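dumping this here before i forget
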Amino acid sequence: MYKALLVDDERLIREGISAIVDWASLNIRIDTAASGIEAWEKITGDVPDIVITDIKMPGMNGLELIDKVKNHYPTIYFVILSAYGEFDFANKAMKYGIKHYILKPCNEDEILDVMKNVINDIENQREVEFILSRVNKDNIPKKDIAIQDIDRYITNYKNTSSLVKDALKIIAYNIGNEQFSLTYLAEQVLYVNPDYLGKLFKKEVGENFSYFLARIRIEQAKKIMLSEPNASINDIARRAGFGNNPQYFSQVFKKFTNMTPSEYKKPMKTS
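structure:
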């Protein structure tokens, strides 16, 4: 069962939302808090999966609560309760990766729709955490060259934030996925704004995302050539994340190495 905390300084709103929604149908146990300060006390005592919070509250407003909670409990999901005229505050919440909003006044169906999306996000994140748990050299299959290189990627960028470290791990896991992109990584996996992730990645890694991804895909292609000299260009392109487009792969390969894949492979075949 998921634990959710509803935070609003207006008693009628707290009681109304608590009462009108069939929380049990969502497998959610709901609790309430009348202020950001009370919410913080409850969160530290029994960490919830989800916090639904108003923005304008005395003492500690919603943004201050989000900031404090994210620093201590980064896995908690937030839903913003926003009234007309509070969009500036709601937009500021985007920097924390929050994408779910309930506009007051609201009805049961609107709340149910948002909460179902939040639960879906939680399940997706748990799947990602399972994938990341595989990013342990003791559990990595020997044949999986890309994943074996994850420790090296992280070591090279050890001074990056936890968000960028997670991004690097997931990139390494997805080198062979031709559909992988910054937008997919940000929106579907890490649940942050793509522009924010792109700027942070460039700042901390020193390369923009698309260039970095292309470069490590070419590194992957070169490793395949070294370990499997008889592998075809088509097969190498596919396994390095270029799909069924060997011509594009060759163009990118030459951009990074000043050689075509065939020229690069030639000494290996004759050795």
